[in-house]
């Protein structure tokens, strides 16, 4: 069993990231370790995550959050919808300081946790908004558009993606991080976004480390430029 804090945990995180083609430095690993410790501390008081095993935090929260990095353009503005414990937005901002990240969550307690983590990690390329996606639109959020909108375990992708499209620049992307994909849900999404979509792509990947292995998918939706 690998514990926190420890050199073994930091080395484990780096090794697991490398399996996905992600190059983490020792500095990255140390900052992720601080994030994990804060997560465990807060989780004793409020329900942020059901995953509390240090190895599973490394793989299923941090490494998983970084997988979409390869599909996000340099210097992009990124909205993380239903960010919860900050996943995937905070790990992406830590790994990709070129990104300008906005975390969106309706829970004040979780937003307070996110802000604590941002201060601890010294991340200045992230802001937090305490509201729902539909309320953001009603509040005039459609005047603020993003290059990429991403979500992990927020809601069924065929529901949140059509609602989020008005917040994406023409030619931008929406990314759903999901487990299995039902053909019926994918068909509903295709029908709902056909007129504004240039392409929909499903990219399977596997989080692999012994019994921590898990099959996952990135659903990438690219919008037309005009």
Automatic annotation (TrEMBL):
Organism superkingdom: Bacteria
UniProt subcellular location: Cytoplasm
Protein name, UniProt field: Ribosomal RNA small subunit methyltransferase G
Native species: Desulfatirhabdium butyrativorans
The entry's keywords: Cytoplasm, Methyltransferase, rRNA processing, S-adenosyl-L-methionine, Transferase
Pfam families to which the protein is assigned, alphabetical: GidB (PF02527)
The keyword Cytoplasm is annotated on this UniProt entry: yes
Predominant subcellular localization, coarse grouping: cytoplasm
Enzyme Commission number: 2.1.1.-
Gene that produces this protein: rsmG
Family label: Belongs to the methyltransferase superfamily. RNA methyltransferase RsmG family.
């Amino acid at each position: 069993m690998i514990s926190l804090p420890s050199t073994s945990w930091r080395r484990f995180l780096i090794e697991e990231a490398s399996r996905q083609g992600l190059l983490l430095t020792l500095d990255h690993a140390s900052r992720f370790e601080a994030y994990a410790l804060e997560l465990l501390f807060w989780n004793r008081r409020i329900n942020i995550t059901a995953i509390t095993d240090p190895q599973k935090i490394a793989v299923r929260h941090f490494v998983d959050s970084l997988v979409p990095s390869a599909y996000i353009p340099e210097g992009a503005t990124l909205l993380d919808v239903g960010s919860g414990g900050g996943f995937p937005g905070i790990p992406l901002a830590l790994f990709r300081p070129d990104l300008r990240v906005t975390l969106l969550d309706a829970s004040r307690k979780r937003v307070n946790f996110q802000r604590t983590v941002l201060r601890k990690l010294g991340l200045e390329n992230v802001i937090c908004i305490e509201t729902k996606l539909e309320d953001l639109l009603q509040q005039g959020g459609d005047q603020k558009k993003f290059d990429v909108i991403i979500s992990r375990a927020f809601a069924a992708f065929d529901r949140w993606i059509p609602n989020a499209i008005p917040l994406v620049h023409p030619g931008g992307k929406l990314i759903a991080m999901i487990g299995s994909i039902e053909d019926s849900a994918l068909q509903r999404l295709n029908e709902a976004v056909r007129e504004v979509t240039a392409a929909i792509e499903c990219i399977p990947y596997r989080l692999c480390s012994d019994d921590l292995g898990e099959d996952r998918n990135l659903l990438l939706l690219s919008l037309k430029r005009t």
